[in-house]
Structures are given as C-alpha cells and as structure tokens.
Amino acid sequence: MPSKKRDISKKQIEWEKKQEEAAKKREEELKKRQDEPPVPEEEASGLPKNWPEDITYLTEPTWSEAVTEEQRALLWHLASELDANCKITASQIAATPKTCAITIIADPKHPAHGQRGLFAAQDLEPDRFVCLYLGHIHRNIPSDTDPASDYDLCFDREIDLSVDASRSGNQSRCANDYRGIAERPNAEFRDCFVKVPCAKRAGGTKWERRVGIFVLSAGKAGKRKQGVKAGEEILISYGKQFWESRKTVAQVSEEFGMLKVADAAVEG
Ligand SMILES: C[S@@+](CC[C@H](N)C(=O)[O-])C[C@H]1O[C@@H](n2cnc3c(N)ncnc32)[C@H](O)[C@@H]1O
C-alpha cells in the first residue's frame, strides 16, 4: 500500500508539471496582452486600470453591523489632538490614481507572477502618503471574520477591529509583501486620520482614524532618501505572522506554490 508521503510527492510532481504548463500559457497570454495597444490610465468605467472585475471598488470603507458605536467612537479625534502630518486631506485621497497604479506582474521570476502589484505612478518622496487601505471594517471575533482572506489587515487589536479588502477595496489591496522581491520594504502601513461629517460637532466634522500606505521615512542616515521612484513596485511587510498562517493553510490545502513562497518568507 503506498505511503501518504509517497502520495504527496507524486501529487507534488504532478502539480509542478501543471504549474510549468500554466506558466507557459500565462507567458503567452501576457505577451499577447503586451502587444495590444495600452489601455488608458482610468477605464471608461471610472475604475483604475487592471482593477479586478469581481471586486467592488471603494472610495470609503464599509462597516460591519457588528462594529459598535463605542468602538467607532474610539477612532474619533479633535483636530487639535492630531499632528499635521497624519491628517490626510480630501485632495490627497483624490490623488491616489496619480500616486500609484495597479500592474499585472509579467516577470516570471517575481513570486506573485500573473497576479497584481502596486507600483509608483510618480516619484514618491520619503513619508509620502500613497493611498488609504480601504475595505470592510469588521470585528476580530470569528463570527465577523473571513478566515480565508488574504487581504485582512489588523486595524486596532485593542479596539478589536480589522480591515478586510478581499471583496471590496481600492488600489492598496494590490500591494505585495517585499519577501522574495526586494531586500527590504519601501513602504509601510501607518495610522492616519480623515475628516468625516459630524452634525454633533462644531464645524460639522470630526477626524476619524484610518490605515494608509506611506513611503518609508528617509531614516537617520538618510539611506532611503530617494523614496520610491516612478515605476518601482510599492512593497510593504505583511509580518511573519501572515506567512506563518499562510504556510499552515497551504500545507492543509496542499497548495504547493504558496507553500514554497510561505516557506521562503518564514525563513527569510
Ligand atoms: C494582499 S494580496 C496582494 C495583492 C495580490 N498580489 C493580488 O494580485 O491581489 C496578498 C497575496 O498576494 C500574494 N503575495 C503578496 N506578496 C507576495 C510575495 N512576496 N511573494 C509571493 N506572493 C505574494 C500572495 O498570494 C498573498 O496571499
């Protein structure tokens, strides 16, 4: 009777063969696409170029019904409590399509080959706001969480909120982790604040916390003073925990491609 180990390695060989065939096919399709005339930056639909058609494009987050008013109130601040550089204006948000663009990765050596990535659409200086991380804001409790999501970002552990961009989001959902692509990340998630309407407050607005993608600071030695150049991929660190849980899922579901990537990421 064949052992389970032998079964798995047979499956893995078959899987690798299929991968090679699929890569060849993808290569041909990408080449065909590159020969086609370029699509305008924004499609007639108003969606960014290369936006996945099965995902809802958001300009502001959606909120789970499980999020309480008390939790939400913990995200509100007065303008006087905030540093100027963490206040994101409406015009900075509106500039998202000018700062970054979604690209389908054509390089077969890239670990996310064939998937999407987020790229700088112009030179971005250190600390520059790139875009908000938009999605569905939900509680971290199991009944309000999609355990299979690859786009779920912890918003605040103490307040018990996360942002999931698996079914809806904006350009930020395409930002890849730096592992296997570059030596280090060039951007990061940072807390920031946006102005939202509030009838109860003087001035009719309040500042509500969000998460954004920002170019990394120049650093004490000014090592990263060049920021991110136009055309460069915007890469963040998802953290080892993301890859450890991805590895466990890949082991159980026998997703050998992801297992290889997650293994390298955990060890790297
Ligand atoms: C938040 S999504 C990033 C965008 C994704 N590439 C897409 O096309 O939608 C996270 C997923 O992207 C892929 N990914 C991101 N960074 C990666 C990396 N460094 N190596 C391999 N795959 C990566 C993995 O499939 C991961 O589960």
Automatic annotation (TrEMBL):
Disordered: annotated span: 1-52
Q: Which InterPro entries match?
A: SET_dom, SET_dom_sf
- Judging by the UniProt lineage, the source's domain of life is Eukaryota
Compositional bias of kind Basic and acidic residues: 1-36
Q: Which Gene3D superfamilies match?
A: SET domain (2.170.270.10)
Tell me which residues make up the SET domain.
100-239
Q: Which named protein is this?
A: SET domain-containing protein
